[in-house]
Amino acid sequence: MPVINRVSDFHDEATAWRRDLHEHPELLFEVHRTAGVVEEKLKEFGVDEITNGIGRTGVVGVIKGRQNTSCKVIGLRADMDALPIKEVLDLPYKSKTEGVMHACGHDGHTAMLLAAAKYLTETRNFDGTVVVIFQPAEEGGGGGDEMVKDGLMERWSIDEVYGLHNAPGVPFGAFAFRPGPILAAADRFDVTITALGGHAARPHECNDPMIVAAQLLTAFQSIVSRNTDPLESLVISTTMIQGSDAYNVIPEVVTMCGTVRTLSAEVRDLAERRLGEICAHTGAAFGAKVDLHYDRGYPVTVNHEDQTAFAAEVAADVVGPEKVDTTVAPIMGAEDFSYMLEARPGAFVFLGQGDGPICHHPEYDFNDDIIPIGASYWCRLVEKALPVA
Asked: Which of 111, 125, 292, 364 has the most CB atoms around it within 10 Å of its CB?
């Protein structure tokens, strides 16, 4: 079963939705216009039940099949928020909000799920219930977590949940994913080093916290190289160091910030523990006060075995088995669909959009030609998971 002809029929219409959303990007939970557009379209399609304000500004739509002998409920999720990035391409549908753009394709994700909702509402060729989930604040706000905490799974009795993300660099129309960990946990750390500052020409009268920061910067990497099994994945990146604002001043306080990426709970615990130990003992060795604040962010995104195998079957139905790769390596980026996969079994897949700038790049643009492929994947998933007798 290739791309659904009826879905292709409204490709131009879905492209127009996507480009309208691209022109009006919104950040985090402030996706009021976007959520309003989604709600308006779902009403227009005849979706059976629409609820807004889930997870603060999320929208949930319920579509019932023409048979209801099955009690099974499938959840399909798209994210809606943009990024604080200045768009540099001079597109006809360029962002009208200065310093904000859809640099990760969430406008396309929303358009694909809307297209699927239109088809599913029109045909209802399934037995059971579909819940379409439009989520705010994926880009750092944890909107997925907020929706789960707001009772998303229990309120709509969702049994399984699925997510999809576009993938620049993956061949056009190809699906790439894997069972197990597919995206990393993303944590942050802040280190504050307090010591005796003074004049840069008289360092012997000071206790330079910059020296402590230099020791920490190097020692943190020993967690990766000497504390972690070489077959495990761990990334520790110190990305900011701030000290004095003058060339000739040794500061009294230096701050260091960075990120930790892991693919297992055990390595995550190890990294946090060792960061704390290194900070404490390095501070003691140099006579400085070193305080560590470790903030756990999105957990590991873990695809469930059975649902991943099912997603592969569906993708193969749409694009052919030769375009489905279920052996890709995990990515050390993070995704808050992880919270939904902690709450219910499911799978998160990548859909290739061909060559072009990566996500979060100011020259990124979503490839509208994958809209019928992504929407067909959603529709086939529902029809295959909830077959009519």
From this structure: 111
d(CA 29, CA 14): 23
- Lookup: tokens for 111: 């358009």
Give buried/exposed letters for 98-128 (b at 16+ CB in 10 A, else e): eebbbbbbbbbbbbbbbbbbbbbbeebbbbb
Question: Hey, what are 51's tokens?
Answer: 């609820």
Distance separating alpha carbons of residues 96 and 92, to the nearest angstrom? 11
Coil vs helix vs strand at 149:
helix
Q: How far apart are CA 347 and CA 138, in angstroms?
A: 17
Q: pLDDT tens digit string along 377-387? A: 999 999 999 99
For residue 120, which of 38, 14, 42 has the smallest C-alpha distance?
42
E runs forming strands in 80-184:
129-135, 160-167, 175-176, 180-183
Classify each residue of 270-293 as buried b or exposed e, where b means 16 or more C-beta atoms within 10 Å of its C-beta.
Answer: bbbebbeebbeebbeebebebebe
Closest CA to 169 of 379, 359, 386, 381: 359
User: Three-class SS of residue 61?
Assistant: strand
295-348, pLDDT tens digit by residue? 999 999 999 999 999 999 999 999 999 999 999 999 999 999 999 999 999 999
Across the chain, which distance is largest between two alpha carbons, in Å?
84
Whether residue 315 contacts residue 141, with contact meaning beta carbons closer than 8 Å, is answered with no
Indicate left, alpha or beta for 128 from its phi (over 0: left) and psi (-120 to 50: alpha). left
Q: Measure the CA–CA gap between 28 and 272, rounded to whole angstroms.
A: 27
Separation of alpha carbons 348 and 205, rounded Å: 57
